[in-house]
Design a protein that fits this description.
five-stranded parallel beta sheet, 9 helices, single chain, 54% helix, alpha/beta
């Protein structure tokens, strides 16, 4: 059974909106058309995750403007730019700013559907990554600041005595903190510590390293 996914169609051309909506619906997805960039942006807070078919050239908010709004909100929704031949340089700019792909009007139905399928695959990856990141950040937040300092040293592969010297505590206290870190994070190895840091989207330098005054 095919899972119904939402495709947001943002285009000021009513004919394009109707054509895309029919194609999307016949493919088993749920089309949600918008006649302007402004209408789409105003509705963003109430929309489920999906992919966006976005016309690059519209009065008011252009496709690039809408893309900027999505970026500002940290949206995971993949953007497919729809463009006419004269707008291809703008579409290329949109790709550089994070759009997934662009398709030139008039486009073949099969090509559009293949692009939408790829967009949903990318959306699933982004959502899974976001879930891992939130879970990892939540785990790190359960640690005290001192434990986070020790966690940094552990993930960097430094010995207990080096960590102790760097942050001004005893080796025995480092060992105690290491045990607390493993218990709170539910892990058993240094490699798992590093994975949690990377899943959280944090470099090692993002964790506190200097002694606390």
């Amino acid at each position: 059974m095919t899972c119904t996914r939402t495709v947001y169609i943002v285009d000021d051309d009513a004919i394009v909106r109707r054509s895309c909506a029919t194609l999307v619906q016949n493919a088993g997805h749920a089309p949600h058309p918008f006649a302007s960039g402004e209408d789409f942006v105003e509705a963003l807070d109430y929309l489920d995750d999906g992919c966006v078919l976005l016309d690059v050239h519209m009065p008011g908010l252009s496709g690039l403007d809408v893309q900027d709004r999505l970026t500002d909100r940290g949206s995971d929704m993949p953007v497919i730019i729809m463009t006419g031949e004269s707008d291809i340089p703008t579409a290329v700019r949109a790709i550089k700013q994070g759009a997934m792909h662009f398709i030139e009007k008039p486009f073949a139905d099969d090509h559009l559907l293949e692009t939408i399928t790829a967009a949903f695959e990318q959306l699933d990856l982004r959502l899974a990554h976001g879930t891992r990141r939130r879970e990892a950040m939540h785990k790190i937040d359960t640690l005290t600041r001192r434990e986070q300092e020790v966690m940094n040293g552990v993930a960097s592969g430094r010995a207990n005595k080096v960590i102790a010297r760097e942050i001004g505590i005893s080796v025995r206290t480092v060992e105690m903190h290491r045990g607390n870190i493993m218990r709170k994070l539910g892990i058993h190895s240094t490699g798992e510590v590093l994975k949690i840091i990377l899943d959280a989207g944090m470099g090692l330098d993002a964790l506190p390293r200097r002694p606390i005054g």
